Amino acid sequence: MRYPHSLLTKTLAKTPTGIAGFDEITGGGLPSGRTTLLVGGPGSGKTIFALQFLVHGAQDCEEPGIFVAFEEASKRIVANAESFGWKIAALQRKKLFFLDAQPIPDLVQLGNFDLGGMLAALEAQIREMGARRIVFDALDVVLALLPDPAAKRREIYRLHEWLLGRGLTGLITAKAGADEAHSINQQPFGFMQFMVDCAVILDHSVVLGVSQRNLRVQKYRGSSFDENEMPFLIGNGGFEVAVAHTLVPRSTKVSSERVSSGVKRLDTMLGGGYYRGASVLITGFPGTAKTTLAGAFAEAACRRGERTLFVSFDSDANEVIRDLTSVGIRLDRYLKSRLLRMASARTITGSAESYLMRIKTLAQEHKARCLVIDPVSTWSKSGNDSSAHSVAERLIDWTKCEGITVVCTSLLNEMSRQTEGGSSLQISTLADTWIDLNYVVQAGERNRGLSIIKSRGTAHSNQVRELVLSDAGVTLSDTYTAGGEVLMGTLRWEKESAERVASKVTEAAAKLKRVRLDAEEAELGMRVKALQVELEAKQVEKALLAHTTETRAGELSQGRTRMGELRGADAALPLRK
Amino acid sequence: MTRRARTKAPPKTGADFKFRLYVAGDAQNSAQAIANLTALCKAYLENRHSIEVVNVFREPKRALADGVLMTPTLVKLAPLPAPRRIVGTLSQVRPVLLALGLEIAAV
To answer: CB-based contact (8 Å) between B71 and chain A?
Structure first.
């Protein structure tokens, strides 16, 4: 893994060790042409550190190296190292030389001796292969043979001088218990710690039954370094020191692409979904459907064709799939098509560090773009209190660098309040989006409420919604508020049905009114018609009357004329028209 | 087995004690070892021994091949059993004799 260049100043030439994280905290590696002391208890990883330093030099830096094994036979060291995937056998001929310097069991020591012979022999070997790096593994074994402290001191000086004279980058490992490593009075290593230019302490302790490994750079002449104790792990690829990128400039690609949460209405609440590469935290009490939400996200990711890793600390992979099927989340097909990888870690107890390492390895193997960790709160189990937070920090740091969208669920303790979210992990402050699930007890019912506590860079709904799980899937219900409270469960249903009834009543009333109006309208129409008929009758009557009157008048005048004629009377006066 | 062999070891005749002494040039420890060994052989193994001195500064490859890393180192090549190695200046006579399986001769 490549880390961005450190801000630590580079005043001194440094020799990279190839140990992830270590080169970063020292600003480049071990001091070139100088001696470094590596102190640690049994099984603290001294030999692996030393060997990795040499292998990296031989393999990647064109710097051949020599390994002087005082304690373990080189054959066994090589065999052990093969498990890290280091191709030592291939390097061994020209670039990596192992010198077996274990004291033979029947060796008798009588009087003073020195390491002159070994140094002479090494000198020849160095010249032959052009070695640039040298490791003296377990120097304490040979020093223990020396009769008095003065002699030990002298031999250390001799070695130191010799190393300086040759310009070799030297690494001396020595055993020390956890306590001894910290006390500077320890002879002769205390003295060695003063003499060398760089001292590194490896510590392996067990806290509440959980193994914790830590590395600390005690001194580094002529260079700044990170002084804190750093957790480290011996993983599949060797030594790995966990480093939080505190001072290092980030070159993380920030994406504004949205990815679906798997629940359509949640996407709406979030203004489109999670951001790609974001870290999402889902907190809640047991049984609040954290896993279901996480599963919905995984399914959505697979549907988009993105490789997904689902890490479950709670239950077996098959159980998770079965349980999710019951709410319509079908992950089995994606498991079959290898798009999804399930990892169950129920039985593992280990340091938070080792969990992270495992997850990293799995994710890299799987080339995952989406990651689900269910629940991440396992990390803060007893024994991991101190390291869990920094592990969580590094998890998020790492996923951001890789552009992996991560959904973590976190179990809340029944006793703790939601404001404490994530307890000792304190992951809630790191996460980009924090969704809280809780039970809302109302009218003798427990219902699941979902609220978005925060979502960086997104407008999001502030409403508490009810999360409804059914065969058909996961959805968020409409909200009904009454008296300042969100109604859920049966109350919501009641409200819904009451509303349905009410609307029906209104509808019926409207219909009735319409009918009544229709009737009235019809009636009025009828009346209009009747009146019309009456009017016509009247008009006819009127016309008839007029006619009759005229006729009568005509008849009258005619009749008068006729009578006059008949009477032979005088001509009538001219008629006025 | 070894113990019995050792008790039977009292040498009687012949120049059959072969030693090889690896030294680091004229370093103090090495010079002392040469002196001590010579004196010891003269006292207890007169005319029955041979000493080969290997200077690892001059023959580093040989020391490497022989697995001799601490100087001075004395290797008893003969008589058998197995070659025995003594590291140090050989300054104390009795322990050296014991280590070489010469305790009877010493008494």
So the answer is: yes
